[in-house]
C-alpha cells in the first residue's frame, strides 16, 4: 500500500469509534470520567501521529492500540511513586463543594495535638497571670515549691520560715489559684 492510499477519516472518528472506545476503556478503568478522558487523549494522540498510520490495520484497531497504551500508561502512573502522589482524593461529593485533593497534598489527619498545644499555652498563660495576682510571698513560695521544685528545708532556710508556715502558705496560694482559674479559665 502506498502512502497516498492510506487516508485517515479523522472527521468521522467521534461518530464511528467514540462509543466503542469509551465502552472498551470504562470496562478496564471502572471510571466513567477517566474513560472519557482516555478516549479524548487517544483521539488527540491519533491526530498527532496520523502521519505514522501505515494502513496495516483498520482505523479502529489502530485507535484501540493507542487507547490500550493510554490505559497501560495510566496504571503505570498510578502505581509509580509520582503517580500515587497525583491520584486525586475526593473530599466532597456534593453540589458546589464538589472537589478533590491531589493525594500528596491531602491534609494529614488532624490529631488533637495542635489544639492541645494551643490550649496548653493559653492555660499556662492564665496560670501565670493567676500566680502573679497572688500576694508576693505566696507567689514566691508557690513557685519555689511547685514549679522550681526546691526542697522544703531549702525554702524555709532561704525565706526564714517554718515548715508548717510554708505549708499554710502553699495551701492558701493553691486556694487562691483555684478560685482565680475557676473565674478566668474554667467558667469562660
From TrEMBL:
Residues 14-77 form the RNA polymerase sigma-70 region domain. It comes from the Bacteria. It holds the Pfam family Sigma70_r2. GO terms for biological process: DNA-templated transcription initiation. Keywords: DNA-binding, Sigma factor, Transcription, Transcription regulation. Residues 126-177 form the RNA polymerase sigma factor 70 region 4 type domain. One of its GO terms (molecular function) is sigma factor activity. PANTHER family: RNA POLYMERASE ECF-TYPE SIGMA FACTO, RNA POLYMERASE SIGMA FACTOR HI_1459-RELATED. Belongs to the sigma-70 factor family. ECF subfamily. This is RNA polymerase subunit sigma-70. It comes from Polaribacter atrinae.
Amino acid at each position: 500500500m502506498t502512502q497516498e492510499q492510506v487516508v485517515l477519516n479523522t472527521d468521522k472518528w467521534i461518530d464511528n469509534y467514540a462509543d466503542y472506545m469509551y465502552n472498551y476503556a470504562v470496562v478496564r478503568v471502572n471510571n466513567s470520567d477517566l474513560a472519557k478522558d482516555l478516549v479524548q487523549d487517544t483521539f488527540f494522540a491519533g491526530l498527532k501521529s496520523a502521519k505514522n498510520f501505515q494502513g496495516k490495520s483498520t482505523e479502529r484497531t489502530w485507535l484501540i492500540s493507542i487507547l490500550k497504551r493510554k490505559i497501560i500508561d495510566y496504571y503505570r502512573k498510578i502505581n509509580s511513586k509520582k503517580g500515587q502522589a497525583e491520584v486525586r482524593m475526593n473530599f466532597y461529593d456534593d453540589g458546589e463543594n464538589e472537589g478533590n485533593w491531589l493525594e500528596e497534598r491531602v491534609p494529614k489527619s488532624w490529631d488533637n495535638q495542635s489544639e492541645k498545644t494551643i490550649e496548653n499555652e493559653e492555660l499556662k498563660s492564665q496560670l501565670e497571670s493567676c500566680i502573679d495576682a497572688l500576694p508576693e510571698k505566696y507567689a514566691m513560695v508557690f513557685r519555689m515549691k511547685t514549679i522550681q521544685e526546691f526542697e522544703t528545708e531549702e525554702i524555709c532556710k532561704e525565706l526564714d520560715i517554718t515548715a508548717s508556715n510554708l505549708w499554710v502558705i502553699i495551701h492558701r496560694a493553691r486556694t487562691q489559684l483555684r478560685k482565680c482559674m475557676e473565674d478566668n479559665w474554667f467558667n469562660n
